[in-house]
Amino acid sequence: MDRVASAGNTIDIIKKHDFSFRKRFGQNFLIDAHVLDKIVDAADIKKDDYVIEIGPGIGSMTQCLCERAGKVTAVEIDRDLIPILNETLKDYDNVTVINEDILKVDLAGLINKENGGKPAKVVANLPYYITTPIVMTLLENHLPLKGITVMVQKEVAQRMQAEPGSKDYGALSLAVKYYSDPRIVANVPPNCFIPRPKVGSAVICLDVYDSPVVKVKDGELMFKLIRAAFNQRRKTLVNSIANSGGLTFSKQDITDALSSMNLPETIRGEALSLEEFAALSDLLTF
Fold this sequence. Notes:
By secondary structure, this protein is an alpha/beta fold. It has 12 helices and 9 strands.
C-alpha cells in the first residue's frame, strides 16, 4: 500500500479506525516522509539487518524499515493500534508486530530467537515521558546491539551528547557515553507530527560499544558518585558526595582523592569527565 507518512493519510487512517490518541502513551505520529528517510538513513539499515522498532504507531516508519531491513519486529504497547498496523503492514512479509510494553519484553531472548543472537539495531520515535528508562534499559542490559537510533525530545538529545562544563551535562550524559558514542543527526520541528508536540525533537544515534568505554573497578559505585554529584550540582563535588545519603565517604576521603588527581577541592561534578569519575571511583574503592 502507499506510504502512510503524510498528514492526509495519517488523518484518513485515524478516522477510518476511529482511533483516539492516548495521552498516557505520549503518542505523536510522524507525518514527514523526509524525516523518516533521514532516520532510517542515519540508522544505516541494510538488507541483512534485524531491526527492533519501539512504538511503531500506525506503521509510518515501520514501512520504511521493512523496505530496507531483512527482518523487523515492531513492539507496540497500545492494543488499539494493532488492527491499524495489521492493515498498513499487510504487504510486508518480513515484519512481526508484538503488542507489549518494551520494558517488559525479553529483548535478549527476542534477538536470540529472531536473529540467532547476532547484534540487532533499534530504531524508534520514543514517547518523551519514558525516553530515559527505555534508552538506559537498552544500554545497561548489555544486549547485542549494533546501534540505537531514536527520535527524542531535543532537550534530552542535547543532554545525551553534552560535554563537561555545559549546562546540559549531567548524569544522563555520562551514562550514555559510558555505553555508546552519541551524535545528533537531525533536528525535527513540531509540525512534523500529529498531534503537534509543544517542543522540538531530535534524532540521535548511539553507536553502542562492545564494552564500556572506560574501565572502572566498581561501576555501581561510579554511578552512585555521579548521581550524588548532579543531585546537588551547584555544590562542590566534595559536599555533594559527603552529603549523599547513599555514600559514606568523609570530606577528607574525597579531598584526598581529588588531590591525587590534581583537581581542586572546590571543583563541581559538572566539570569532571567520564574518565575522571572513573578514576575518582577507583581511588575511593577500598
